[in-house]
């Protein structure tokens, strides 16, 4: 995967606002970013990555391991994926956000609390996108998408009726027979323990 190298900003630790300004002015073309102590610094994670190389393969070759993931990675509106790598002084993390069309810059943090902070910032976006995705699928005019939510629910319901309803009914009947038998035995045991009145 070909990546655009990141440039160094004019200030060592640029704020998000500075990033936006520099990008608009054309003085900065950041790709990946390092977040620490509330500040952002551009980095080039893939400076040594060959052109058109698989990004996931390259990350794994440099010590990164897949960590947490939020959202459907292959069949959802937005997915948040994280990576971790062990260093001599601790563990560092990467975070990426992607959909079926594009991927965000990689965001690198040095501590787990910073990772939690970034994930918390992205969570409302993922939740909103997921709800919108479901609603759009439910109110869609065309019913020709075999992978749509409504179609999959209908297919599962049909499968459940055809494949599971009979066994479920038989299992319920078996449980009811067992319950009645247990009640009958309990009553019989109670009667057996009841003292018999001696003949007059």
Give the helix/strand layout.
Layout: H1 16-25, E1 32-36, E2 39-43, H2 55-61, E3 65-70, E4 79-87, E5 90-98, E6 107-109, H3 112-138, H4 149-193
Parallel strand pairs: 1-6
Antiparallel strand pairs: 1-2, 3-4, 4-5, 5-6
H/E element sequence: HEEHEEEEHH
Helix content: 40-55%
Structural category: alpha+beta
Question: Which spans of ≥5 residues are poorly predicted at pLDDT below 50?
Answer: 1-17
Largest sheet: 6 strands, mixed
- Physical arrangement of strands within the biggest beta sheet: 2-1-6-5-4-3
Mind telling me the C-alpha Rg?
Answer: 30 Å
Cα distance spanning the termini? 101 Å
Mean pLDDT: 75
Question: In one word, what is the shape?
Answer: elongated
* Strand coverage percent: 15-25%
What is the domain tally? 2
Number of helices: 4
How many strand units?
Answer: 6
């Amino acid at each position: 995967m070909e990546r655009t190298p990141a440039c160094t900003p004019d200030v060592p630790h640029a704020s998000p606002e500075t990033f936006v300004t520099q990008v608009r002015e054309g003085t900065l073309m950041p790709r990946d970013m390092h977040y620490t102590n509330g500040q952002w610094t551009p980095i080039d994670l893939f400076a040594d990555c060959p052109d058109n190389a698989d990004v996931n393969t390259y990350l794994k070759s440099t010590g990164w391991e897949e960590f947490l993931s939020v959202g459907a990675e292959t069949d959802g509106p937005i997915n948040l994926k994280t990576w971790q790598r062990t260093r001599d002084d601790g563990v560092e993390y990467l975070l990426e956000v992607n959909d079926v069309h594009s991927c965000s810059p990689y965001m690198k943090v040095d501590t787990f609390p910073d990772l939690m902070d970034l994930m918390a910032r992205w969570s409302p976006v993922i939740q909103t996108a997921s709800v919108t995705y479901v609603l759009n699928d439910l109110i869609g005019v065309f019913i020709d998408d075999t992978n749509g939510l409504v179609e999959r629910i209908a297919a599962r319901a049909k499968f459940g009726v055809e494949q599971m309803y009979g066994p479920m009914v038989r299992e319920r009947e078996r449980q009811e027979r067992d319950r009645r038998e247990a009640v009958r035995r309990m009553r019989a045991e109670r009667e057996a323990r009841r003292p018999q009145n001696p003949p007059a």
